[in-house]
Every structure is written in structure tokens, then in C-alpha cells.
């Protein structure tokens, strides 16, 4: 993970601030930085989203392609995640430096989606045992300013919301051979329900308290963090601890309660922004990368 | 808890917002400035094929017969006498160095120093031969582009709002609580690790957000601009200062006050 070097005095200053609920930029322990979300930024994808959280910049593209269902789940499609840590984000990611972090994030994404209710995979099935939709979700890290997991999960949810999969029909003729027909209307597509898609809330333990949405400097002061993946209804799908330090069970319980509370607000804000963007219709002015 | 999500808004060009009539002549590396060979070449330009070409991205400045290009964003170029704030990244690993420096300075520490000499390859040698320089204690560091720090007589300021600031010429700005006793200034080599009071913290966080807003709107940083921005931000909550619309409002007010003060 990209990290900054801090002097002892700076770390002490940050830690004391967190104990008093006044962080360096004036936020409280449970406040997020301002988030900017925009969908449909990449034209040749089935769905895309860009999220800016402070200076952390994430771009997600979703491509739907036809494939064969997995043997153990013949009636379902599936998702594949790939994370690319661009060398633009920080010099540490030059060459193969970003690969470890990329694999770690991709594995976390697989885990949080590894349950029956996050995405209804049955809607991705075209014909059982033969054809299904595979959604390739590609995450690109453009800039890194702390709290990567949260930003990535928000971007993945927004991109899945934006994904439009063309509607196909399977035609069977008399000899029994099957043909797949694509609908003539380019706007005739199926959309995924992202109601139960979880978002990750990262809680970093600093001193005796924990903070949400840590900056790079705050992450350098924290010895242990908890990644909680929580849905809009407050259901926890996955829990992961990172860092060299230890967490006692009481802290973990408190952090989980905080994450459920924070997660609900996060999902509500994201839903309202996505619906607002959609209501602006095709005439909305796209800001994109040169705005 | 506060959570705000919004759709991005396209930024308006600066000249439109300020209502300026005269547009600056902006160039990028490789642009032709003029084909008139009577002009003298200044910094940021070179002669090629009978015409003057820009070598940096910036605005063209003309003084009589001298044309130069002032770069918008540069790496720090050291000059003798500059005050800099720096972080120790690497140390010489010799035995005498360990014995002498162990316990005083470690990797990751921040110091304030003055430039003593500049080498031909751009490297600078620093000295801390005054009590006002030395290891920095508790506080907040903000990194900005060096071209935004205005050159002044002094770079150590004790602001009346209740905190002190060091404006490093290299773009590193250090904000720290004003020490109570005059003898224990920002220098020395023993850091004070006692908790800073909540009131001081609020001032420091507010100053930090004000500096970030000024930098985002490309305003020059000096004690007066920072102070005016601080005063303009008082009606708002500290964490709201970084919201785009409030940032614009505060910096606009600061700009107006500075213009009134000059005129």
C-alpha cells in the first residue's frame, strides 16, 4: 500500500486529535470526505463509473461477454474482477510494484460478492449449462490518497448500476440446434438490481478510537484496520482485518456497529446520487476527465 | 456523521470568473513565441529555426526587449538564503554519523533550515545554524507547488489567530501551535509531545483547510492572504471549507480584500 513517512511528533499530533474527535482537516471520526460520482464515462463498456474521494481517483469499467456457466452453478452467470494499480497513482506502483496490492483488492472483491444475495446471478443466465453472461469488472486506480477499498466498492456498485446488458433470445429450430438472437433495438437491455450490492467501510484504529475514511497520513498512524463489507440494509457480508497490530473483541464489536451505521448512510447517499444522475437523462452534460 | 455525495461539476476557466479582459499569452513547450529575431532570449525560451520557441509551459512575459516564459508549475529551484522545510529520507550510515546524530534526528523527521549553497546540478546544501531552525515538533504539513509561495523578507509568521506557520520556499508549509515561551521556538532538537489544546487544534485545522483552498484556486501564499482567507472562513464549519462552492466563495472574498488593500 502506498504510504507516507511521518515524524513521531506528527503521528502524536494526529493520534491526540483523533481522541478528541477533531482530525487534521476538521472532520469528526465518522465523517467522510466529499465524494464525486459519475457514471457512463467510458463509451465502449457495458457500464462504467468514476469516483473521486478526496484525491483518491478510481475508474471502473464493466464489460459483459458471453461465456459458459461454471460446472457447479449451471444456472448462473458470474463476475470476474481485475484491479490495475496505475503507475500514475504513486511511484511505488511502477513496473510490477502495484501487482500485490491489485491482487489483494481483487481477492477482497471476490469475497464480498461471494454470497447468494449480492447480485442475482440467475438473471445472467441465457441457457442453462450452455451460455451465460460473464461480467468482467475492471478497476483502475488513478490516484491514491487513502481509503482505497471504500472508493473502489462505491465505484463498483455505481458501475454495476450503470451496466446495460443486451437482451438475447435463444431460438431452437426443428433439428434441435440453438441460435442466439440479439434484439434489434440497441436500447433494449437488462439491468442488474444493485440493491443488495455491498460497500466496504474501512475503519482504522488510531489510539483508542477508530476513524472512517482515513487519509494516507492517518493510515500511517494506525496499526490495525477492519474492512467491513455491509449492504444497504445493514447486513454484514464480509469482515477482514489488515495491519500488524491487534484488535480486542470489544473494539471489533464497536467497529462493526459503527460500520453498519455508516454503511446505511453511505448506501442511501449513493442511491440518491445515482437516481439523480439518471433522472437528468441523456442530455446531461458529461464532465469526464477534462472537466 | 456526515456523508456527502455529489455529481461532478465542470470547472469554469479562471479568467471568466474574474472577468479579466486581457488574456495572458499562454504557451506550451514547442510553441512559437515570435519570429522577430530582435528580441533577447530569457528563461524558458530557446532559439530554433529563426524563431523563438518556448521550452516550458507557462505565460509569456515581456520586459522591453527581453522575452521570457514564466512556468506555471515548477520543481523547486534552490537559491541561497531560502528557508525550506524538509523531511529526512536517507542518512549516511557511517559510524561517526550514528554516534553523533542518534537521538537527535531520525528518518522521517521534519526540519526547517536555510539554503547555504547551491550546486551546479541543482542540489542544495542546508544549514540550521540558528536557534530558529531545527527539528519540528507537533503540527501539520501541507505540500503545495513551490511557485505559489511568495518570496518575502521572513517566512516564519506568528499569525494573530493563534497559530504559527512556516512558508517553506520549496512548497512545504508547516503549521504548528505558537509556543508559549519565546525561548522554545520551532528549533532545537527535542520535540514537545504533550497534547495540543482543542482550541489550538481548531485554529490549525482551519488554517490548513484555508491554505488548501488558496492552492486549489491558484492564489499566491503569504501571511496576508492566509490571514484574510482565515477570517473569511470563520462563518463556516472547518470541515465545510473544502466543499467546492464554499471554497470558491471564501477565496473570492479573500481576493477582493487583497485588491482593496492594494488599491
Which sheet architecture does the biggest sheet of chain A show? 6 strands, mixed
The main sheet of chain B orders its strands as 2-7-8-4
Mean pLDDT of chain B: 86
Distance between the termini of chain B: 44 Å
The helix content of chain B, as a percent range, equals 10-25%
Radius of gyration of chain B: 22 Å
GO molecular function (chain A): mRNA 3'-UTR AU-rich region binding
Subcellular location (chain A): Cytoplasm; Nucleus, Nucleolus
Keywords (chain A): Acetylation, Cytoplasm, Exosome, Nucleus, RNA-binding, rRNA processing
Protein name (chain A): Exosome component 7
Question: Mind explaining what this structure looks like?
Answer:
The complex is a heterodimer of chains A (291) and B (263). Chain A has 291 residues and is an alpha+beta fold. Chain A has one domain: 2-Layer Sandwich (Ribosomal Protein S5, domain 2), CATH 3.30.230.70. Chain A is built from five helices and 14 strands. In chain A, strands 1, 2, 3, 4, 5 and 6 form a six-stranded mixed β-sheet that branches. A four-stranded antiparallel β-sheet of chain A has the order 12-11-13-14, with helices on both faces. The longest helix of chain A has 31 residues. Chain A starts with 7 loop residues before the first helix and ends in a 12-residue tail after the last helix. Chain B contains five helices and 16 strands. The longest helix of chain B has 19 residues. Chain B folds into two domains: 46 residues, Beta Barrel (OB fold (Dihydrolipoamide Acetyltransferase, E2P)); 181 residues, no CATH class. A four-stranded mixed β-sheet of chain B has the order 2-7-8-4, with no helix packed on it. In chain B, strands 9, 10, 11 and 12 form a four-stranded antiparallel β-sheet that branches. The mean pLDDT of chain B is 86. By secondary structure, chain B is of the alpha+beta class. The termini of chain B are far apart. Chains A and B meet through helix 1, strand 1 and helix 5 of A and strand 1 and helix 3 of B. Strand 1 of chain A pairs parallel with strand 1 of chain B, so a sheet runs across the interface. Chain A: Pfam families: RNase_PH, RNase_PH_C. Chain A: InterPro entries: ExoRNase_PH_dom1, ExoRNase_PH_dom2, ExoRNase_PH_dom2_sf, Exosome_comp_Rrp42_subfam, PNPase/RNase_PH_dom_sf, Ribosomal_Su5_D2-typ_SF. Chain A: This is Exosome component 7. Chain A: Its main location: cytoplasm. Chain A: Keywords: Acetylation, Cytoplasm, Exosome, Nucleus, RNA-binding, rRNA processing. Chain B: It comes from Saimiri boliviensis boliviensis.
